[in-house]
Each structure stands twice: as structure tokens, then as C-alpha cells.
Amino acid sequence: MHSTYLALGLAVIALNLIAGATGAVAWLRHRLAIAFWYLLRAAQAGTLVFVLFETVLYIGGHRADDGLHYLYVLLPVIASLLAEGMRGASASQELGEVDFKTLSEEQQQEVATLIVRRETGVMTVACFVIAFLVWRAVTTDAGLF
Fold it and tell me: 34 phi and psi, to 5 degrees?
């Protein structure tokens, strides 16, 4: 069971790092990256599976020696929810008081690109934070460090 937990944790870390790196490159190059959003959702799904697996282990009586471990297990879900909330607010930050419908098509496209870039930045940071938190969860349970 321990090796399954470790493998799942490492896979979730890798997914989040790959998604984060893809998002960072897209953000730095001012490009839209459709692949990032698919990788992000895969990383989020993997994180959810990791948390559910840990919950099943906990219910089954397998307990970590360090109580801090459970904080590291739950924080990725909270970080993901907060990032999604911030992503949702990014449109209003970019638009401010401007009525989107009154803008020309070219201006609308420019604003939309800025919104997606901001959303990419927010979710990229979340991927790196989640990768770190899952790494800490794995290390506090596995006794790796």
C-alpha cells in the first residue's frame, strides 16, 4: 500500500510540475496554450484522486506518524479552490469599469487575451504550490527526508 501511495504522490507531483511548466512558458511568451488547460485539469484530477486515496487509507486505519501530514494532504484542495476563485475574479480585474460589449472586436480580443494570460498565471502558480504541498505530504508520510 505504501508503494502505491508513493507512486500516486509522485505522479501527482509530476503532473502539476508539467502543467505548471507549460503554463509558465505560455505566460512568459504571452501565448495562449490550450495544452496547459488540459494538463491543468489532469493535474487537478490527479490531486483529487491522491486526496481521496489518502482519505481511504485514513479510514482504513493507516495513519501517518506526523499529524502535519494531513495538513499537507488537504491544503492542495484548498489551494486549488482558491486559485479557481482568483481565476474567476481575473476578468473583472482586467475589465475594471469598462463595458465589454462597447469595445470594438479587436479590443475585445485583446482584453480576452489579457484575461486568459492572467488566468494562466494564477493557475500556473497554483500548480507549483500544489506540487510542493503534495511533495511535503509524501515526504512526511514516507520518511524520505
Answer: -65, -40
- CA distances to 67, 87, 96 from 101, rounded to whole Å, are 52, 21, 13
Please write the tens of the pLDDT for every residue from 77-113.
Answer: 999 999 999 988 877 777 777 777 788 888 888 888 8
Find the distance separating the first CA and the last CA of the chain, reported in whole Å.
Answer: 20
Rounded-to-integer distance, Cα 74 and Cα 38, Å: 23
Q: What is the pLDDT of residues 39-50, one digit of tens each?
A: 999 999 999 999
Q: How far is CA 23 from CA 1, 70, 82, 116, in A?
A: 33, 28, 18, 11
Q: Which residue has the cell 473583472?
A: 92
